[in-house]
Amino acid sequence: MNSLINLSGKIESDWVDVLRHIEHCTASLKIPYVLIGAAARDLLLKANDLTSERATRDIDFSIEVIGWESFDQLKSCLLTLPEFEQDRSKQRLIFRKSLPIDLVPFGTIEEQESEISWPPDYAVKMSVLGMSDVLESAISIRIADKPHVLDVPVARIAGIGLLKLLAWNERKLTTKKDAQDFYYLLQNYIDIGNINHLAENHVDLFDDIDTAHARLLARDIKDISSKKTQQAITDILIQEIKSGIESYLIQSMLPKFHEATDSKKILIMLKAMETEFSCSQVRLSI
How far is residue 89's CA from residue 149's CA, in Å, rounded to a whole number? Predict the structure, then answer.
């Protein structure tokens, strides 16, 4: 983590309390974690005076464990507090009867293809590809400075984009939410705290401003990703580009009311991303 964003005094109290409890339990158990998903996105939007098109009422954490025992210890630590209760889903806790908290473990529990299998029967599998990339590239956000300082590791916007695309590929038949969230980043990435980054490190993107958001997002995802993650994303992009404007990803991205040319514009952005992933030039991230 190499930068600090200060949002103290700007976060609703329930979120602050949840994050304090998570920080306390993970620190006491020496479990690395990172805030991911829509909650991370909303914090980064707030930091740039932007608002989300869709409000979220859940908070997702990716946690690096050395075994299922570590995962259970973290949940037990949280469940000693009366404000938390176990949901029917093994990875989910409920805070104050209304706020879902999802804990997504990865680490030594991973099997082949970066998957985990949930105990006790290990029948339900889940991909955790990219989680370590997002943790390693996290930024720090100050959530509160009273009564004591609370700094939380949060996924970068590029990390959120990475996980959104991988999540879409895993559950594309059941929801369009991941594709729509990814589309928002394709359209707005530079505006979410990346204007100076663009001007200082990627001036060549001004040559084609229509694809600049997509190309900068691709470069930043590539910079924080392992070779395995990069290959998975490249494979997704190539497959969807082959399908043209009928791509399932493109069709899932499109809002209910859209222009006839929108699908072609998205296809151009996906092609621009794939070109960046195929580029061998090495770039340094900030």
Answer: 32
23: how many CB neighbours lie within 10 A of its CB?
Answer: 16
State how far the Cα of 80 lies from the Cα of 78, in Å rounded to an integer: 5
Contact 79, 85 (CB under 8 A): yes
Pairing state between β 84-86 and 59-65: unpaired
Pairing of strands 4-6, 139-144: parallel
HEC readout, 65-99: ECCHHHHHHHHHHHHCCCCEEECCCCCEEEECCCE
Over residues 110-143, the pLDDT tens digits come to 998 899 999 999 999 999 999 999 999 999 999 9
Backbone angles phi, psi at 149, to 5 degrees: -65, 135
Residues in the chain: 286
Which domains, from first to last, does the chain contain? 4-155 (3.30.460.10), 160-278 (no CATH)
Q: How far is CA 166 from the centre of its chain?
A: 10
Nearest to 159 by CA among 187, 189, 116, 117: 189
Written as six digits, the tokens of 141 are: 């956000």
Local structure of 102: helix, strand or coil: strand
Q: At 169, give phi and psi (nearest 5°).
A: -65, -30
Distance CA 156, CA 194 (A): 11
Structure tokens of 192? 């979410």
Q: 175-200 pLDDT, tens per residue?
A: 999 999 999 999 999 999 999 999 99
β strands within 115-272, DSSP E:
115-118, 124-127, 139-144, 150-154
> What is the reported pTM?
0.93
Task: Indicate the pairing of strand 99-107 with strand 59-65.
Answer: parallel
> Each residue of 115-138: b (16+ CB within 10 Å) or e?
ebebeeeeeeeebbbbbbbbbebb
